[in-house]
Amino acid sequence: MNETKVIAHRGYSKIATENTIGSFLLAAKQDYFYGVELDIHLTKDNKYVVFHDDTTGRLAKVDVVIKDKTYNELKDIDLYNKRNEKYELKIPLLSEVLDLMKKNNKHTIIEIKPELNEQQITELLSYLYLNEYKDITIISFRLVNLVLIRKYNKKINLQYLTSKHRNINFLILERYKLGYDIQFPIATKDNVKYLKDNKIPINVWTVNKKEVFDKMVSMNVDFITTDGF
């Protein structure tokens, strides 16, 4: 499969509830997956939880705004069990998932959902460093997050997440030493050639059809993010 690595989107979300411990455990058991992607939000008491949306309503009967609740309030929310899963369906802490991935030698791609301030960025970086979470990549749609992280850490893997391509993005990637995490239709032959020629890592998402997967592999992109198919 060339050098392309496969990333489990929100864990093995085709067969388990996204961003849950069960989803990440199932992904960790598959040699097929190089790593997992997850989403983080900051709670009212400054803890990072793994959840995609700003609110819980899509996955739970209780609909609350994550940033307005403490972790203790969020951890008691039961998520829907739509697949008769045996795993506990709760909102996990980032630390729980990172520990699981470290134990299973899997790479973790962390998407920062909110815009963080400088203090929050430095605290996050300190937390990752002190707990020796090294096998990670941080991604975000919010470029300011990545710029602030690069200010304090010159070596950590970062990817600019976007569903819209502009040529100025190439200059941004080079200036801040970022990879490009793009929706797969943006991965045109010309765009991929430019990125490969300039040694800029390419991650494409979310690829759930085999014909698209095979095309991305043939283009030798670095990462393919998938729910599974």
Could you please describe the fold and organization of this structure?
This protein has 229 residues and is α/β, with parallel strands linked by helices. The protein has a single domain, classed as Phosphatidylinositol (PI) phosphodiesterase (TIM Barrel), CATH 3.20.20. It is built from eight helices and nine strands. It has an eight-stranded parallel β-barrel, surrounded by five helices. α1 runs parallel beside α3 (94-103) and α4 (118-130) packs across α5 (143-152). The longest helix has 13 residues, at 118-130. The mean pLDDT is 97.
Q: Strands of the largest sheet, in order across it?
A: 1-2-4-5-6-7-8-9
Beta-strand share of residues? 15-25%
What is the distance, rounded to the nearest whole angstrom, between the alpha carbons of the first and last residues?
17 Å
> Which architecture name does CATH use?
Alpha-Beta Barrel
Per DSSP, the total helix count is 8
Specify the overall morphology. globular
Instruction: Tally the structural domains.
Output: 1
List descriptors:
229 residues, TIM Barrel, 8-stranded parallel barrel
Fold topology:
Blueprint: E1 5-9, H1 21-28, E2 35-42, E3 48-50, H2 71-74, H3 94-103, E4 107-112, H4 118-130, E5 136-140, H5 143-152, E6 157-162, H6 168-176, E7 179-183, H7 189-197, E8 202-205, H8 210-218, E9 223-226
Helix pairs in contact: 1-3, 4-5
